[in-house]
Penicillin-binding protein, transpeptidase domain protein
Amino acid sequence: MDKEQLQQKKEQKKDMKMRKRILKCFTGLLIFGLVLTVRLVCLQTVQSADLTERADAQSEADRKIQSPRGMILDRDGKVLAISEVAKSLYADPTMMQSDTDGKGKTPAEAAELLAPYLRIKQDEIEERLSRDTSFVWLDRTMDDDKYQALKSVIADKHIKGLRFVDENRRYYPNGTLAAQLIGFVGDNDHGLDGIEMVLDDDIRGDTQKLRLTTDSNNVPIFDSALEKVLPDKEKSVRLTIDSTIQYIAEKGLDDIMKNNKPEGAAIIIMNPKTGEILAMASRPNFDPNDYGKANKEAYKNRAVVNLYEPGSTFKPLMASAALDAGTWTESKTYKDVGYVQVDDRVISNWDDSGMGTVTLKEILKFSINTGMVAIGLNTGGKILTSYAEKYGFGKQTGIELPGEGEGILFNPDEMSNINTATMAIGQGIAVTPLQMVQAFGAVANHGTMMKPFVIKEIDNPDGSVFKKTEPQEVGQPISAEVSRIISTIMADEINSGGGLNAKIDGYNFCGKTGTAQRLNSEGTGYAEGQYIGSFVGFGPLEDPEYVVLIVVDNPSGVYYGAQVAAPIFKMMMTDIVRIKGIRPASAAAANATVLKSLPAAASRAPLPPVDVTGDTVLLPSFIGYDSREVNEWLNAAGLGFIPNGTGLATYQVPAAGTYVDAGSNVTVSFSR
């Protein structure tokens, strides 16, 4: 074989090898193409949804936010609670911990810089910023001033991984007004007390997602949000509260706290015809916009929760029970000597003096304990307790508020004579202020008792009514005639009796003062030297529109209900009748009870000479004389003078004909 043939053979082999290589490459490329094609098909079909979700997660981030809570309004549509947009601060600790350029801050450094502006302590901030997570809250729904300050600090100090987001915050435009009744909302948008808690399921917004476009570091781009403020899609609540009357009640409590410095106080004002609560206020108080700063005692709605002995304010109810049961009559007389023996106990009048022969009118008007004991024993414990239960005592009223107390009554089958006697004068039992208002609502409403309520209606977002509360009659504890008798006597007490400090010129209001020892919070018995002064009233007598209870818990200094509570009733109702346009009764009608009992100035004889026997002085009747005449006589007799009111004397303690020790004080009430 020549050289040329050998060369051709070599080239053929080389071509063959090249072809094989090309074939292998082509085969490999073909297989790779097939695999790639299959993979692409798989990606586009089987795994498409999963990959789309991953891609979205890298470019967008979801933030859960709460849509706004429904509004809380008063009976006239005035806003009591509303949601507004506020800034919240969150952190991505992974960004702070992965900082490599040296320009950022460590968790410890950031915590030190942020601590002055946040509501959590520095060590807690550092702990949160050190967590192995990409999201932690640092502060929620902050004020704009705090937001601006934090924004500057974060920018100036180059603190990485911190971002602000809009959230809904509950705002109470009237601050402390009706705070315990309305309640407040926590950072998680759950109601924590009051109406906010009771109706949380109805007015709390749904949790919704707010999608933000982010960069590769999960930082929102241009504060992008598909919805910055979600529409209010929740129900709103309209309360029975009248903001104007509520404000008057709050002012009354402020005056009590300032002048008498009690541990606490409460006021309730209710419409006796419907049971609608028009005002409910309690002290101490707090601002629900900043509830975290308040003492927990301030959260307590004393009008609903607290139990206390009603004392003399309970007497009209027990008297009405005796009248309705037929065990006592309006004209029946009782001889009061100042004290009465019941088993091994002696019960005395508040001033230890007797008033002689009296009827039911005087027993209630001058709060004669011995007379009420006689009425109670004559009626019996079982009957008194049954009427107390008819009035709603010993059980909750069912008002739409948390923590309502039930009260305490005697077991009628185990009542002793002393139990019956003390119950008749409002001792030995425990009631809530709301129960007292419900009961006297029946006295004011011709014997018909209405259930107290504070929720007038719940409205849908479109304005239609979702649920409306209708007034509910819950009993007829006494007849209309007994209601008339008790109301007339209570009106007389304000006009010329112990409730004179509550008298409103030109109007006939009914009332009863009360003073009781304070129950011992640490156990049974009473707290030494501690008292509760109270006043219950309603009116106007001709057509009662308001029932009012004022309870003052352990005031400093004077503590009688006539001194600490009755004047507040007068102040409040004077404002209310003026603002609400309630016309006064005629001057003659308004003062008829007083004028009938007073002698004309020109016709009355001078006071008798001072009659001193040893170290005692015989008191004359001061009724019908003015304060100057009474003061001159008492000074001449060496006695102290405690005047109450202005005008002509209508009541005195001790009573006329009593011998008193030299240097004693004499209290005289005056009225025009």
User: Anything to note?
Assistant: The chain has 22 helices and 26 strands.
